[in-house]
Write a structure and sequence with these properties.
There is one protein chain. A hairpin with a 4-residue loop joins strand 8 and strand 9. The protein is mainly β and about 150 residues long. The chain has a single domain, classed as Sandwich (Immunoglobulin-like). About 5% of the residues lie in helices and about 35% in strands.
Length: about 150
């Protein structure tokens, strides 16, 4: 069986995330901050809807130096491949007052930590399962339910 690896599939196929001239989300990123996923809101949605991936960073991390293009997403398609998409918006100082408290887990986090959110539109063909977000610091998994 011959597979053509690009984007999300390439990440899983090579464990490096890119080959010559292909998808390489962290190559253009400057600055240093770690981003740890603490939840997705809404945690259950439909394909074509917008969701936010909430992350925490250290209190002194320069999260305002990043832009939405520094993040990339993969969602599960129910088979062996992932569907990829870029983000819609990035807020380095997220307001969490309007989200369902069951969608994010801040139990182990300090309220002094930076809480940021990147929104993206769930690609058509996505099904319930693990998703990935490529952040400027690493790659994080999240669970997304699709109705």
């Amino acid at each position: 069986m011959l597979l053509s690896l690009t984007g999300c599939a390439e990440f899983f196929g090579t464990h490096e995330g890119f080959e010559d001239g292909a998808f390489a989300p962290r190559l253009a990123v400057t600055g240093m901050a770690t981003f740890e996923v603490v939840g997705v809101s809404p945690s259950v949605t439909t394909a074509g809807a917008e969701v936010g991936v909430y992350m925490v960073s250290e209190p002194d991390a320069p999260v305002d130096e990043f832009v939405v293009e520094d993040f990339w997403f993969c969602t599960f398609d129910g088979q062996a491949a992932m569907l990829e998409t870029g983000g819609n918006d990035y807020e380095p100082d997220a307001d969490i007052s309007d989200i369902d408290e069951n969608d994010i887990d801040l139990s182990d986090k300090s309220l002094d930590d930076n809480i940021s959110v990147v929104t993206f539109t769930v690609p058509e063909g996505s099904v319930t399962g693990e998703g990935l977000v490529f952040t400027p610091s690493d790659t994080q998994y999240f669970i997304l339910g699709i109705d």
